[in-house]
Write a structure and sequence with these properties.
- This protein has 351 residues and is α/β, with parallel strands linked by helices.
- The chain contains 12 helices and 13 strands.
- The strands form 2 sheets. Strands 7-6-8-9-10-12-13 form a 7-stranded mixed sheet, sandwiched between helices.
- Strand 8, helix 11 and strand 9 form a beta-alpha-beta unit.
- It is elongated and about 85 Å long.
- The two termini are 47 Å apart.
- The C terminus is likely disordered.
Length: 351
């Protein structure tokens, strides 16, 4: 196996120069750098990552901690993170905190002990232990999808990357109201998650914009999973005056709601209209086809990597929150007779 010394001899330079090229530890003249790169290519030299990390104090690795990896939305985010990391020459260490506060803190510690350069984390509903660990150990981190409020002093501690949530949810509700629905129910996610809170805010904003009162009986929590959504849907259908339209808070809960509707002998949209937050690959294959808000999962993952690398390059810059716009995918489960072209959400900020 070729060594760094072999590369140096082949390129006619010192071993130190080869090291500087590999580790970017000192400027090297362009023609010298190219000679080293050509020698590496011709000899098939593979750098020793462990040795490089001892020189640079960097492992060129990123820790990714996300729960619900089976959720298609998080799968898209993972693909975006992996592609962006690979493009920048970083490897990825993946862990599932299972939305458990104690476990997510342990996951952060394990990733930190493996000397990742930084972390991308989707925090749980109670992330205090996780955040305290990241702050105490000064771990460069980006919070993904789920955001946390700024502390009492008003100075954000972490970069955050997520999708717009309130406005797209409001758009689903106003669309159903425009179709004549007056009892529009929401199957919301796990209490405590920022994604749940923001979508409930959007739900209430949509009702207000349509001139409809908020009825807490029409809000049920499906806890961000299929079985919970089935139970929530059944509870909503059991009301003295059940809803005529239903909005689900994520794609996993959409499946649970559909199972419950079928168990009650109801068809969509003839008996009840349905819209969902989160599009997914097979939504177009349902009959009827599902009207949905599509989140830019891959773009969120890729942007999180970019923001983390910017943090590594400038550790002292102010933290920021990046929100990417969603897309309204208009199909037929809402009760419209024909599909319409997908439209981007009107509101979205990408600072």
């Amino acid at each position: 196996m070729p060594t760094m010394a072999d590369v140096a001899r082949h390129a006619g330079v010192s071993v130190a120069t080869v090291s500087h090229v590999l580790n970017d530890t000192r400027p090297v003249l362009p023609h010298t750098r190219q000679a080293v790169l050509d020698a590496i290519d011709q000899l098939g030299y593979t750098p020793n990552t462990l040795a490089r990390s001892l020189v640079t104090s960097r492992t060129r690795s990123i820790g990714l901690a996300v729960s619900a990896i089976r959720n298609p939305y998080f799968t898209e985010i993972l693909q975006g993170v992996e592609a962006a990391a690979l493009e920048q020459g970083y490897s990825l260490l993946l862990a599932d905190p299972h939305d458990d506060p104690a476990h997510e803190r342990k996951v952060a510690q394990l990733l930190h002990e493996r000397r990742v350069d930084g972390m991308i984390v989707a925090p749980s509903a109670d992330p205090g232990g996780l955040l305290a660990y990241l702050i105490r150990h000064r771990v460069p981190a980006v919070l993904l999808d789920r955001t946390v409020d700024a502390p009492a002093d008003g100075v954000p501690r972490f970069d955050q990357v997520c999708a717009e949530k309130a406005e797209p949810m409001a758009r689903l509700v106003t669309h159903l109201a425009d179709l004549g629905h007056r009892r529009i129910a929401l199957v919301a996610g796990l209490p405590g998650l920022s994604t749940t809170a923001e979508r409930i805010t959007g739900y209430r904003q949509g009702l207000a914009a349509a001139g409809l009162p908020y009825d807490e009986a029409l809000l049920a929590h499906g806890d961000s999973e299929s079985a919970g959504a089935g139970r929530a849907t059944t509870a909503l259908l059991s009301l003295a005056t059940p809803p005529t339209a239903l909005v689900t808070g994520n794609n996993v809960m959409t499946l649970g709601a559909l199972h419950a509707l079928r168990a009650h002998g109801l068809t969509v949209p003839d008996d009840i209209a349905l819209c969902c937050f989160d599009d997914f690959a097979w939504a177009d294959l349902f009959s009827p086809r599902l009207t949905a808000v599509a989140q830019p999962g891959r773009d969120i993952g890729a942007r999180a990597v970019r923001v983390l690398l910017e943090r590594l390059a400038a550790p002292d810059r102010p933290a920021r929150t990046v929100r990417l716009p969603c897309t309204f995918v208009h199909r037929t489960s809402c009760g419209c007779g024909t599909d319409r072209q997908s439209k981007p959400s009107e509101k979205g900020t990408t600072p």
